[in-house]
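Blinded run. Sample ID left blank on purpose so nobody reads anything into the name before looking at the predicted structure. Input follows.
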Amino acid sequence: MPIDLQATSTATLICAVLGGAQQILDEAAERLCGSFGPVRQRSAPYDFDYTDYYEREMGRGLIKQLLWLEQAVAPEQLASVKLQTMEIEAELADTTSAGTVSRRANIDPGLVTVQSLVLSSTKYSGHRICIGPGLFAEITLLFQKGGCRPFDWTYPDYRSDAVQHFLLEIRQDLLAHH
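Blinded prediction complete.
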C-alpha cells in the first residue's frame, strides 16, 4: 500500500551575507543570482558587531545584509542550497602565499514560510536537526500574532527590529500570494 505523504509547500529563499565591505556582499549577491535567480529585495546593510566569532578569519568591521531571492524552493532542498552557498564562499575566498584560505564572505541560506524562519548551518547544536552530512537546520524565529517570536538560540541580529521588519515584509508577501 503506498504511503500518502503530505506535500510540502514552497518557501522563500533568503541568504544572509556577511563580509568586510559592501563590494564583497555585492559579489556574493551576484554569484547567488547565478545559482538561485534574481534578488527581489535587499535589507539595509548593518554592522555585524554581535560577536567576534568571524574576526579571526574575516577581519574586523564586518557588515551583513539579507537578500530576499525571487526563487521559491521546497523545504527539502535546504541542504542542497547550503552546499551551493558553501561553494560560492569558496569561490570568493582568498588564498595567502602560505596557502591558507580565508573566507571573504559567509553566506547562510534560510527559508521563510508564513510560519517561520529556518536557517541552515554547518555547526551542530542540540536544538538543530541534521539535514545532510555535516549540515543542520534550526527554526530561528516563529511568526506569531503579527510579530516574530525568537528562541533562546536565536542569533542577536535576528532579534533586531530592522531584521524582523524585513522578514515580516517577506511573510506578508507570502500571505498575500497564498
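Unblinding after everyone has recorded impressions. The domain at 11-176 is CATH 3.30.70.260 (Alpha-Beta Plaits).
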